[in-house]
Amino acid sequence: MRTSIHVPQFAGEIAIIVAIVAGAVVAHALFQRRFRAEQLRRHNDVAGYLFSAVGVIYAVVLGFVVVVVWEKYDATAANVTTEVAAVADLYRSVGGFSNPVRDRVRAELCEYARRVAYREWPHMSDPRDDRRDLALLERAAYRIDAYQPRTVAESNAQQMAMTQRTRLFDARRLRYYQAVPSIPAVLWVALYAGALAMLAFAFLFGVENRPMQLLMTAILAGVIALLFVVIGEFDQPFSGSVRLSPDAWIALLRHLPNIP
Questions:
Q1: pTM to 2 decimals?
Q2: Mind giving me the DSSP string for 73-95?
Q3: Longest Cα pair distance anywhere in the chain, in angstroms?
């Protein structure tokens, strides 16, 4: 598995980050015009303690969310690899069947891989399980279950095929589950509120060198906005500017005809 970069969406995310940074700097500059540094400097000690406490709490929560969605992204990539491997292993297992069952199941597996790579994958950002593709798998599964082995080798091949069939269905089901965003709305509200609180505290410090303070505000806003983009990207592994590519399925389609 590898990721692919969707350049227009990536450029849009960079533009959003720049807009957020510019908005924070403009708001802080207007705040500086309203309040003199001498007024704000009187409360620097208290504001510093509160900023440290709130900053630690927010950093822990934000970092935890980043780690969780990062792990989800890695788990999704691993599950797609499992699904691809299950199709290849099932294709190889039914090689022990006699015709016409062997050729029919293999043809259905090839068609399934083709549909996933070229029809399902572009629409995984709006995951709706295509019942036609699932029916294709159900037909293949039925042929495997209904097959009557005539030798010990065919019986062993059927047992292996049943194991890979179950593995394939589980991986497909998990793929659709992982395509759905996992961060609840209430957590997004908490993250936004924390970001606003951090920026508000940055406004409350009185510093003689006000341009330098604006630069620090820009850095703080940029880091928070960047992490928000990272969370959104990792939480939706099949959409966004950095998404999982269907290259594994395309490689599988090239490889299946070579399996005896």
A1: 0.82
A2: HHHHHHHHHHHHHHHHHHHHHGG
A3: 92
